[in-house]
Amino acid sequence: MKRVVLTLWVIMFLVFSCKKEEKRVTLTEGDWWAMMEVDENVELPFNFTLFKQDEDQYKLEMYNADEVVVVDEISLSQDSIYIQMPVFEGYIAGVFTENEITGSFIKESLERVVPFEAFYGKRERFSIEEEPVENISGVWETYFEPETPDEYAAKGLFVQQGSKIEGTFRTTTGDYRYLEGVVDGDSLKLSTFDGAHVFLFTAKIDKDSLEGVFYSGNHSKEKFVAKRNEAFELPDANSLTYLKEGYDTFDFSFPDGQGSKVSLKDAHFENKPVVVQIMGSWCPNCLDETKFYVNYLNQNPDLEIEFVGLAFEYAKTEESAWRSINRLKDRIGIPYPILLAQYGTSNKQLANEKLPMLNHVLSYPTTIFIDREGEVKKIHTGFNGPATGTKYEEYIQEFEKTIKELTQEVSAI
Predict the structure, then answer these.
(1) Which CATH code is given to the segment(s) 138-228?
(2) 286 CB contacts (<8 Å, ≥6 apart)?
(3) By C-alpha distance, which of 309, 285, 299 is closest to 385?
(4) How far is Cα 108 from Cα 75, in angstroms, rounded to an integer?
(5) How far is CA 195 from CA 16, 53, 92, in A?
(6) pTM for this structure?
(7) How many CB atoms lie under 10 A from the CB of residue 40?
(8) 7-21, 109-123, 251-265, 340-354 — which is least confidently predicted?
(9) CATH of domain 253-411
């Protein structure tokens, strides 16, 4: 009886295998156009190029202005596809044919699902129907959720050539990274998808003013207004976060990957300047900052200074939080320790309870610069990434000056 059952199983397997072979489909290499549905009849488009590395082994490059995001974890099974985003937890899951992919972009920890489609063929990110009515290159004073309790300021930075436009919005907590789009008649359209952000900005242009909507995935929609203002500046990023009255030092006690508690009082940090990075593995601005730190440390291996990251993770379990942290460390090559400060939420109010000496945790990332005597010399809120152009260059100069001051104090002893 067992022999008959086994024989039947083998026959079924062979039949299934033959059918599987008959149904085998490969993806077409080359240019693809993709979109995510962020609202009813509202699509966020982006472009990518697909490359075949080996049999059933693919990689793709996603494009946002000057940014190229390489995705090299793509799995195929019959007509199913799974695309894991680099560093971040999000993934695309769906079905495919040679020239089409249909599915969803999923962030499990946040329970977010955004419909996704992609089509083979070279196509412009946004279609253009009319000549632009204005060239909006320059600086724009911007307010999201205007005239509400949730209002916040931003600085729009745009460069337009013909109908094509690139740029970003800077806020007090960081920038919205690389945005790419068009001015179509009197309509502004900008989008980005970098494996974490699903951002679409649309607006009507009326000479020197904009009025529009900012879509973050399909879970958030904010109104915004803007006006030309080349002189507009946001508050100084070094003035927003500070030690509360009654606190003279900054300290913490959080576990490392081996479960051991780490504190600034440990002998490891004694008589050394320290850079403390408040961050999350899910945060694109934190990723930009971390890449900068890793590159800086690689170029300056003899610096007498310590870096340490405090991760605030929205992963639902401690195990999955560490999985995300270790994935970030491995993919970026982070040489400094990252401690788990919180998991289950990235709520800033709860984060502040873990760090009660700060007036608030306003932004991920936030960086605290501490001298060898434990005195906080500066706290920098947010991060101006490479998409901000000259502001990023200014940040680099300021950072190098701060590090030089801290390490020279050590050298002078």
Answers:
(1) 2.40.128.120
(2) 277, 279, 280, 364, 365, 383
(3) 285
(4) 18
(5) 35, 21, 9
(6) 0.89
(7) 6
(8) 7-21
(9) 3.40.30.10
